[in-house]
Amino acid sequence: MKGLVWGIAVVVALLAFGTVGGGYLIGGTLDERIEQAIQEADAETDSLVLTLQEHERGTLSSSATVRVYLAGDIGSEYRDQVGKPFAFELPVEIEHGPLIWEAAGPRFALAQIKGPLRLSDETIAGIEQASGEEVQWEVPLDGSPADLTALIGFDGEIDARIDLHDFAGTLLRGDHEDLELELGGVEGVYRASYGGSERVESFIAGDVFAYELYPDSGKLLDFSLGADMHAHDSGLWPGRLQASFARLELAAEQSAEHLRGEEFELAIDDFTFLYGLNIHSAEDGGDEYGELIIESRTGQSSLREGDEHFRLQAGNLDGVFSNITLESLIAAQQLAQQLEQMSDYQIDREMQALATDFLNAGPRLQINEFTLYGDRGKVGLDGFIELAEQQAGGLDPFALIAGLQTEFQLVAHKDELLSAIEVIDGDAAAEQFRMALDEAAQMGYVDEEDDNLSTKVAFADGQLKINGESADELLEALIMEALVN
Description:
This protein is α+β, with helices and mostly antiparallel strands and about 475 residues long. Helices cover about 30% and strands about 45% of the residues. It has helices at about 1-45, 70-80, 120-130, 325-340, 345-360, 395-400, 415-425, 425-440, 470-485, and strands at about 50-55, 60-70, 85-95, 100, 105-110, 110-120, 135, 145-150, 160-165, 165-175, 180-185, 185-195, 200-215, 215-230, 240-255, 265-280, 290-300, 300-305, 310, 315-325, 365-375, 380-385, 405-415, 445-450, 450-460, 465, 470. Helix 7 runs antiparallel to helix 8 (about 425-440). The longest helix is centred in the N-terminal third of the chain and has 43 residues, at about 1-45. It starts with a helix and ends with a helix.
C-alpha cells in the first residue's frame, strides 16, 4: 500500500512539474510563435493590418492585445471621412500548454487563447466625433460584441471559434432614421492544419440576422456559409464552398435621384449552393487540369420591382466545367487580385490572353440540369459544349468552330417563357420573341404541344442541326455576325 501511495505521489509530482515547467518553457517559445503568426497573417492581406500590443509573459499564462486595422482603399476612405482609423482590439489571455484544462478534460496543446472582441478607443472617439450630437448610440460602443476562443496545437494547428452576442433593438438613433439590428445564435469556426498537408476549414452560421434602416431592410434566417480547402503545389486551394439559408428577405425604395416610390422586394426560401474546385491528373500522365462544380437549389422565390412581379416555385442548377488548365485558373486568380491597380487597357489585354489560354485548352461545359419552375410550367435546359484542344499561341476562331461539339435540349412552357422575358425586357421584347417562336415553329426548329415548347440543338463536324433539321444557312449567318462583331 505504501508503495502504491508513493507511486501515485511521484506521478502527481511529475505531472505538476511537467505542467508548470512545460508551461514556462512553452511560454518562452510562445512569444516568438505569436509574433510570427501575427506577422504572417499581416503579410497575407492588404485590406487589414495586424499588430501585437502589450504582450506580457507569465509562467503558466500570458496576456496580449492584438489590434486589427482596416486598411486598403476602404480603410483610407474611412480615415479621410472620420479622421481616425477603424480598428478592432482583442485583449486576450493565453494559457500555456502542454496541458490545457477544458470542460471535457485535459488536452495537449501549445496554448489556448480567450478574449473579447471590441472596438478600439480611437475608433469609438472617431465615430462619436463624426456622428455629432444628432446620433445617439443605444448600445455601449466599448462593449464586446463577440468572444473569441482559439486552441493552438504543437504542429501549428488552429481551432478557433467566435461567438457574436445576441442582440435585438435599436443600434443607433438619428434625427430622421434609426438603425434596427437583430442577431441570434451567430457563431463562426475556423480550423487550420499545417505541416505535410495544409488544410483550412471555416464555417459561419446563425439563426437570424436582420437590419432595418428606412427605407431599406433585410432578414436572413437559419443561414450557414462554410469552406473546406487544402493547399496545392500550384498555389491554388481546391475544395468546396457551401452556402444555405431557410429564407432571405430584402426590401428597398429608390432614392430621390432615381424613381421615388419605386419599391423593390426580394424573397427566397430554402436556398442551397455548392461550389467546388477539383484538380485532376491527366490520364496520359500529362499536366494536371482543373474542374469546377456548381450546384444550386432553391424553393419559392419572388421578385417585385414597382408594378412588375416575377415568381418562381423552385429552381435547380447542376453543372461541371472541366478540362481547365491550372495556368488559366492561376491567371484568373491573379487578375482578380490586381484589378484595382490595373488600367482598363491592361485589364483588356490580360482578359484576352486569359481567354486564349482557356479556350485553346479544349474546355468542356456539362449542364446536367438547369430548371426553373413557375406558376404556369417549367423552363429547362441540359446538354454540353466542348472545344477541341488547339495549338498554343493566338486564338483561331475557325479552328475553334471546327473543333466545337455541342448538344442541348431545351424544354419550356410558352407562357412561362414569355412572361419571364416580359418582366426582364418589357412587352415589346416579349412580343418580338413570340413572333420569332412562331417563325421557328414553321421552319421545324421548335416543336409545340399543349403550349409546351421543345427543341434540340446539335453541332458537330461543322454541321448545325436543330430538331434534326439542317441549319447551315443559320450557322453561316451566325458566323458572319460573330466575325463582324
